[in-house]
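Ligand-bound model needed. magnesium ion.
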Amino acid sequence: MFRASRLVFSRMKASTKALNRASGRAATRAPPSPSAARGLLFRRTLTAGPGTTTTREGFRPAEATSSRDERKGQEEEYEDWDFGGEEEPVSQVRERRSVPAEVRCFDTAKICAQSGKGGDGQVSFRREKYVPRGGPDGGNGGRGGHVWVVATKGLNSLSSFRNQIHFRAKKGGNGMGRNCAGAAGEDVEVKVPIGTIIRRAGVLDGDTFEQSAAGGEGAGAAGGFGYADVTADLETLTFDGEGEGAVSELDRMGSLELLRDGEKKLLIHGGRGGRGNTSFRTSTNKTPRLSEAGEAGMEEWFELELKLVADVGIVGAPNAGKSTLLSSLSNAKPKIAAYPFTTLVPNLGVCDKLGYKSIVFADVPGLLEGAHTGIGLGQEFLRHCERCKVLVQVIDGDSPDPLGDYHAIRTELELFSETLSTKPYIVAINKIDIPDVLDRTRGLQDYLRGEGVETHTISAAARQGVDPLVKSVDSVLERFAEEERGSFGGFVDDGFAVPEQEADLAADFKRLRKEADKATTRRDFSDFSLHYEGATRTWLVKGRAFESYVQMTDWQYYQAWQRFRKIIKVSGLHTALKRQGIKNGDTVCIGSQEFEWSSKMDQDLSYGEWRDIMDEEE
Ligand SMILES: Nc1nc2c(ncn2[C@@H]2O[C@H](COP(=O)(O)OP(=O)(O)OP(=O)(O)O)[C@@H](O)[C@H]2O)c(=O)[nH]1
Ligand SMILES: [Mg+2]
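Prediction:
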């Protein structure tokens, strides 16, 4: 039995190393304490010390990262971390790297969110003069802070995430005597532009075991942790719980999409607050001497992708006057200059010219011939136009070959995608304030009108002909809205929050907040899986409910041990392990703890037996 424990230890040592690598910390842990089984269930902590618990889930408390240098080091580590997603081919990566950083970070980003740890529960008894045996009055800890994403109108790129990638919510307050509950941890909001899509980049937890099992670091070393061996006789049984199912929208849909200003969605919820001893009072136990520690927060990486939500996309060759047009029809102040590629990332502008409603225009960087194959910057942005309802092509009337420019852009759109080429299309011939331009482009105007293309002649700089252009854009949008009303029974989401929608958003948020608070307390013990390693006779139990339970339990209390035995029995873990043939002396790992199995597991633990275990541990 002792040997088994030793083996398990050496195994854990390597696994802790792997986990630490994942969580970016140096591998440190206390040496193993010699222990004997005595036919009882005992436990040993696999942690590095107080406050720096690294569980198999890879949870890392916020305090663990202190210095800036350390954080920087971690970010670098995460860069190499393989999240198991599809790898980008090297050629594509190179291609992407050759474009300016501003462009690269415009529409994709990676962030790390950490929810707050729950506050600890308290063990306390009421003490007052003339009130003998006042009963328990230890309060519960507050829940940890949640992490939310909020769509924010003023933003139109993800480049702010070049400077900040970590978002941490605060810890919940600890419970106190006199039944005082701890305060909930402060939430954190990640502000993203409207049109952002968020997906999980890869969870630091679960994957760790499987990843290493595939022969990762530390595999196969003599006496070390041989994950390679694990795969050989790994048997996995999953007990699908009849739980209440996935909670957050992210779990249900696999991704989050924020399309309205002010829309808020839950990224990860905070840790549950530990219960104080008052919560454990029952008719048979009036003096509960146990409490829970707060549940650790979660830490996850997310990938953000932005697809701009604009009604109208302004496209055209470089230097045609697209940004000038945007500035003349909205309050936007894009950079305008007489050289190509002044605009590197799309600019958004809201046009209020019609008074009763607003239209969002996007000024897209100039397109060159071959844009669909990645020439210039066009390709990076053409897909954003796919969400626009109408495209406006600006043609430089002063260009040597305006007709050629027209065809070049049309061809690029057609080659890029069918969605783009079939969008309603309006042409604006620009710079008519320059003498002769109106006359020189007469042929082009006739040609386009002959082709059935709606054509305007404008001077973006002199703000001439801009209003009729906006009006015809609006009439196309109106046609769209009517079609949508027909197919969606009257509801049109124009991407902007009108008063009723704001009320809806507030109600939605209230509901989501309730759900998130509830999620922190939800437990489904029947949802766990077992993994067995024959060589070291070790059973790994994986399941969020169990792992959190073990982490939250304050093992210094005898009653906590009794409660743990009850949970093992009631949840079905005891039966499942027995059915799989677990033997006395086998090791059971749950989260950061390891236990030695005993056939007496389903019986009550007497106080004397418990004292023996505690003495041994010391
Ligand atoms: N005369 C005249 N010049 C104009 C007009 N519109 C734009 N320009 C000039 O054309 C040049 C290019 O204008 P921008 O608005 O930066 O062109 P753009 O299409 O956004 O160019 P990129 O962002 O580089 O693709 C600037 O020097 C403008 O002053 C116009 O109506 N008349
Ligand atoms: Mg521009």
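DSSP finds 19 helices and 20 strands in the chain.
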